[in-house]
Amino acid sequence: MELTWFGHSTWRVEVGETTLLIDPFFDNPKTDTDPEEVDPDHVLLTHGHADHIADVDRYRGTHFVATPELAGYLGDQYDIDDATGMNLGGTVELGDAYVTMVRADHSNGIDTGYGTSAGMPAGYVISDTKPTQVADEESETFYHAGDTSLHTEMRDVIAPFLEPDAVAVPVGDHFTMGPWQAAVAVDWLDADVAFPMHYDTFPPIEIDTDDFVREVEATGSPADVEVLDGDETFHLSEGY
Protein backbone atom coordinates (compact mmCIF):
# COMPACT_ATOMS: atom_id res chain seq x y z
CA MET A 1 0.00 0.00 0.00
CA GLU A 2 1.32 3.45 -0.96
CA LEU A 3 0.20 6.58 0.89
CA THR A 4 0.80 10.06 -0.55
CA TRP A 5 -0.02 13.21 1.41
CA PHE A 6 -0.89 16.32 -0.61
CA GLY A 7 -1.24 18.56 2.44
CA HIS A 8 -4.23 19.28 4.68
CA SER A 9 -6.40 16.11 4.63
CA THR A 10 -5.80 15.17 1.00
CA TRP A 11 -4.35 11.68 0.51
CA ARG A 12 -3.84 9.29 -2.36
CA VAL A 13 -4.02 5.65 -1.31
CA GLU A 14 -2.86 2.97 -3.72
CA VAL A 15 -4.05 -0.54 -2.96
CA GLY A 16 -2.91 -3.07 -5.52
CA GLU A 17 -4.11 -1.72 -8.87
CA THR A 18 -6.70 0.61 -7.29
CA THR A 19 -6.12 4.30 -6.57
CA LEU A 20 -8.23 6.23 -4.06
CA LEU A 21 -8.14 9.98 -3.45
CA ILE A 22 -9.46 11.34 -0.14
CA ASP A 23 -10.77 14.91 0.35
CA PRO A 24 -9.37 16.71 -2.72
CA PHE A 25 -8.20 20.18 -1.68
CA PHE A 26 -5.01 21.22 -3.46
CA ASP A 27 -5.11 24.93 -2.65
CA ASN A 28 -2.94 24.47 0.41
CA PRO A 29 0.67 25.44 1.17
CA LYS A 30 2.02 21.90 1.40
CA THR A 31 1.51 20.79 -2.20
CA ASP A 32 2.72 21.74 -5.66
CA THR A 33 0.63 19.08 -7.36
CA ASP A 34 -1.88 20.00 -10.04
CA PRO A 35 -5.10 18.12 -9.17
CA GLU A 36 -5.38 16.94 -12.74
CA GLU A 37 -2.06 15.11 -12.39
CA VAL A 38 -3.81 12.78 -9.94
CA ASP A 39 -5.94 10.19 -11.71
CA PRO A 40 -7.85 8.22 -9.05
CA ASP A 41 -10.28 5.40 -9.66
CA HIS A 42 -12.39 6.57 -6.72
CA VAL A 43 -12.70 9.74 -4.64
CA LEU A 44 -13.70 9.47 -0.97
CA LEU A 45 -15.14 12.45 0.89
CA THR A 46 -15.18 12.64 4.68
CA HIS A 47 -17.53 15.63 4.90
CA GLY A 48 -18.80 18.70 3.06
CA HIS A 49 -16.59 21.56 4.24
CA ALA A 50 -14.91 23.57 1.52
CA ASP A 51 -11.39 22.59 2.55
CA HIS A 52 -12.28 18.96 1.82
CA ILE A 53 -14.35 19.16 -1.38
CA ALA A 54 -12.93 22.24 -3.12
CA ASP A 55 -11.51 20.31 -6.07
CA VAL A 56 -14.24 17.74 -6.63
CA ASP A 57 -15.12 19.40 -9.95
CA ARG A 58 -11.70 18.36 -11.27
CA TYR A 59 -12.78 14.74 -11.02
CA ARG A 60 -16.03 14.65 -12.94
CA GLY A 61 -16.30 11.20 -14.47
CA THR A 62 -14.65 9.59 -11.44
CA HIS A 63 -16.59 7.44 -9.00
CA PHE A 64 -17.22 9.13 -5.62
CA VAL A 65 -18.04 7.73 -2.18
CA ALA A 66 -19.69 9.91 0.48
CA THR A 67 -22.70 10.04 2.76
CA PRO A 68 -26.00 9.91 0.83
CA GLU A 69 -26.60 13.60 1.55
CA LEU A 70 -23.20 14.65 0.24
CA ALA A 71 -23.46 12.32 -2.74
CA GLY A 72 -26.74 14.01 -3.64
CA TYR A 73 -25.13 17.43 -3.35
CA LEU A 74 -22.40 16.36 -5.78
CA GLY A 75 -25.02 15.52 -8.34
CA ASP A 76 -27.01 18.72 -7.85
CA GLN A 77 -24.09 21.15 -7.77
CA TYR A 78 -21.34 19.49 -9.81
CA ASP A 79 -23.19 17.11 -12.14
CA ILE A 80 -21.32 14.22 -10.57
CA ASP A 81 -23.69 11.31 -10.96
CA ASP A 82 -21.35 8.37 -10.41
CA ALA A 83 -21.47 8.41 -6.63
CA THR A 84 -22.08 5.76 -4.00
CA GLY A 85 -23.88 6.99 -0.93
CA MET A 86 -22.98 5.00 2.15
CA ASN A 87 -23.14 5.48 5.89
CA LEU A 88 -21.25 4.85 9.09
CA GLY A 89 -20.40 1.21 9.67
CA GLY A 90 -20.73 0.19 6.04
CA THR A 91 -18.00 -1.40 3.94
CA VAL A 92 -17.76 -1.20 0.15
CA GLU A 93 -15.40 -3.06 -2.15
CA LEU A 94 -13.64 -0.74 -4.58
CA GLY A 95 -11.36 -2.70 -6.88
CA ASP A 96 -8.56 -4.09 -4.73
CA ALA A 97 -9.59 -2.04 -1.68
CA TYR A 98 -12.16 -2.54 1.05
CA VAL A 99 -13.38 0.80 2.42
CA THR A 100 -15.20 1.05 5.75
CA MET A 101 -16.86 4.32 6.75
CA VAL A 102 -16.40 5.06 10.44
CA ARG A 103 -17.43 7.71 12.90
CA ALA A 104 -15.91 11.20 13.11
CA ASP A 105 -17.04 13.85 15.57
CA HIS A 106 -17.26 17.18 13.76
CA SER A 107 -19.77 19.50 12.07
CA ASN A 108 -20.83 18.87 8.48
CA GLY A 109 -22.49 21.79 6.77
CA ILE A 110 -22.15 21.88 3.00
CA ASP A 111 -19.28 24.26 2.19
CA THR A 112 -19.60 25.40 5.84
CA GLY A 113 -22.94 26.96 4.85
CA TYR A 114 -25.74 27.44 7.35
CA GLY A 115 -28.68 25.07 7.48
CA THR A 116 -27.51 22.63 4.79
CA SER A 117 -26.33 19.35 6.22
CA ALA A 118 -24.21 16.74 4.51
CA GLY A 119 -25.26 14.13 7.05
CA MET A 120 -22.74 12.69 9.49
CA PRO A 121 -19.03 13.42 9.05
CA ALA A 122 -16.88 10.34 8.62
CA GLY A 123 -13.47 8.75 8.56
CA TYR A 124 -12.37 5.82 6.40
CA VAL A 125 -10.53 2.59 7.10
CA ILE A 126 -8.99 1.23 3.90
CA SER A 127 -7.62 -2.29 3.67
CA ASP A 128 -6.49 -4.81 1.09
CA THR A 129 -8.58 -7.49 2.82
CA LYS A 130 -12.21 -7.62 3.86
CA PRO A 131 -12.62 -6.77 7.56
CA THR A 132 -13.76 -9.67 9.73
CA GLN A 133 -13.48 -10.59 13.39
CA VAL A 134 -10.59 -12.89 12.53
CA ALA A 135 -7.27 -11.03 12.69
CA ASP A 136 -5.22 -11.03 9.49
CA GLU A 137 -1.55 -10.37 10.14
CA GLU A 138 -0.81 -10.11 6.42
CA SER A 139 -3.29 -7.34 5.63
CA GLU A 140 -2.32 -3.68 5.16
CA THR A 141 -4.77 -1.16 6.59
CA PHE A 142 -4.83 2.65 6.67
CA TYR A 143 -7.18 4.77 8.79
CA HIS A 144 -7.96 8.35 7.70
CA ALA A 145 -9.65 9.85 10.74
CA GLY A 146 -11.28 12.76 8.89
CA ASP A 147 -11.92 15.95 10.82
CA THR A 148 -12.64 14.76 14.32
CA SER A 149 -12.23 15.15 18.03
CA LEU A 150 -11.03 12.30 20.19
CA HIS A 151 -13.67 9.58 20.59
CA THR A 152 -13.63 6.18 22.22
CA GLU A 153 -14.70 4.28 19.09
CA MET A 154 -11.05 4.59 18.06
CA ARG A 155 -10.08 2.51 21.10
CA ASP A 156 -13.11 0.23 21.31
CA VAL A 157 -13.93 -0.58 17.67
CA ILE A 158 -11.40 0.68 15.14
CA ALA A 159 -8.27 -0.56 16.92
CA PRO A 160 -9.39 -4.07 17.94
CA PHE A 161 -11.57 -4.96 14.96
CA LEU A 162 -10.30 -2.96 11.97
CA GLU A 163 -6.66 -3.10 13.10
CA PRO A 164 -5.07 -0.16 11.27
CA ASP A 165 -1.34 -0.41 10.60
CA ALA A 166 -1.11 3.30 9.76
CA VAL A 167 -3.24 6.22 10.89
CA ALA A 168 -3.57 9.82 9.73
CA VAL A 169 -4.96 12.08 12.43
CA PRO A 170 -5.78 15.80 12.41
CA VAL A 171 -3.48 17.73 14.73
CA GLY A 172 -4.08 21.42 13.94
CA ASP A 173 -6.38 22.10 16.91
CA HIS A 174 -9.15 24.76 16.85
CA PHE A 175 -11.41 22.84 14.40
CA THR A 176 -10.20 19.31 15.26
CA MET A 177 -7.98 17.56 17.74
CA GLY A 178 -4.76 19.28 18.71
CA PRO A 179 -1.46 17.51 19.34
CA TRP A 180 -2.25 16.07 22.76
CA GLN A 181 -5.66 14.63 21.87
CA ALA A 182 -4.32 13.33 18.57
CA ALA A 183 -1.53 11.63 20.50
CA VAL A 184 -4.07 9.89 22.72
CA ALA A 185 -5.87 8.75 19.57
CA VAL A 186 -2.63 7.29 18.20
CA ASP A 187 -2.08 5.43 21.46
CA TRP A 188 -5.62 4.06 21.48
CA LEU A 189 -5.41 2.99 17.83
CA ASP A 190 -2.33 0.83 18.48
CA ALA A 191 -0.97 1.45 14.99
CA ASP A 192 2.62 1.01 13.83
CA VAL A 193 2.91 4.42 12.19
CA ALA A 194 1.07 7.74 12.58
CA PHE A 195 0.90 10.75 10.29
CA PRO A 196 -0.20 14.25 11.31
CA MET A 197 -2.56 16.05 8.93
CA HIS A 198 -4.93 19.03 8.82
CA TYR A 199 -2.41 21.62 10.04
CA ASP A 200 -0.56 24.75 8.79
CA THR A 201 -3.12 25.43 6.05
CA PHE A 202 -4.32 28.71 7.58
CA PRO A 203 -3.48 30.62 10.78
CA PRO A 204 -5.89 29.01 13.29
CA ILE A 205 -4.38 25.56 12.65
CA GLU A 206 -0.68 26.43 12.48
CA ILE A 207 1.27 24.24 14.91
CA ASP A 208 4.73 22.88 15.62
CA THR A 209 4.58 19.19 14.67
CA ASP A 210 7.35 18.50 17.20
CA ASP A 211 4.66 19.00 19.84
CA PHE A 212 2.72 16.10 18.33
CA VAL A 213 5.83 13.91 18.27
CA ARG A 214 6.50 14.65 21.94
CA GLU A 215 2.89 14.01 22.92
CA VAL A 216 2.88 10.61 21.20
CA GLU A 217 6.09 9.69 22.99
CA ALA A 218 4.54 10.80 26.29
CA THR A 219 1.67 8.32 25.90
CA GLY A 220 4.13 5.45 25.69
CA SER A 221 2.79 4.51 22.27
CA PRO A 222 5.27 2.49 20.18
CA ALA A 223 4.00 4.11 16.98
CA ASP A 224 6.53 5.78 14.71
CA VAL A 225 5.45 9.34 13.88
CA GLU A 226 6.15 10.21 10.25
CA VAL A 227 5.85 13.93 9.48
CA LEU A 228 5.60 13.87 5.72
CA ASP A 229 6.48 16.67 3.37
CA GLY A 230 3.73 17.68 0.99
CA ASP A 231 3.56 15.36 -2.04
CA GLU A 232 5.66 12.75 -0.23
CA THR A 233 4.82 9.04 -0.55
CA PHE A 234 5.11 6.48 2.22
CA HIS A 235 5.32 2.79 1.36
CA LEU A 236 3.47 0.94 4.08
CA SER A 237 4.83 -2.46 3.04
CA GLU A 238 8.39 -1.41 3.84
CA GLY A 239 8.86 -2.29 7.48
CA TYR A 240 5.22 -2.38 8.56
What features would you describe in this structure?
- The protein has about 240 residues and is an alpha/beta fold.
- It has a single domain, classed as Ribonuclease Z/Hydroxyacylglutathione hydrolase-like (Metallo-beta-lactamase, Chain A), CATH 3.60.15.10.
- About 20% of the residues lie in helices and about 25% in strands.
- The chain is built from five helices and 14 strands.
- The chain has helices spanning about 50-55, 70-80, 155-160, 180-190, 210-220; strands at about 1-5, 10-15, 20, 40-45, 65, 85, 90-95, 95-105, 120-125, 140-145, 165-170, 195, 225, 230-235.
- The strands form two sheets. A seven-stranded mixed sheet has the order 6-5-4-3-2-1-14, covered by helices on one side. A seven-stranded mixed sheet has the order 7-8-9-10-11-12-13.
- Helix 4 (about 180-190) links the parallel strand 11 and strand 12 (about 195).
- Helix 4 (about 180-190) crosses helix 5.
- The longest helix has 11 residues, at about 70-80.
- The N and C termini lie close together (about 10 Å).
- The relative contact order is 0.16.
- The model has no long low-confidence stretch (mean pLDDT about 95).
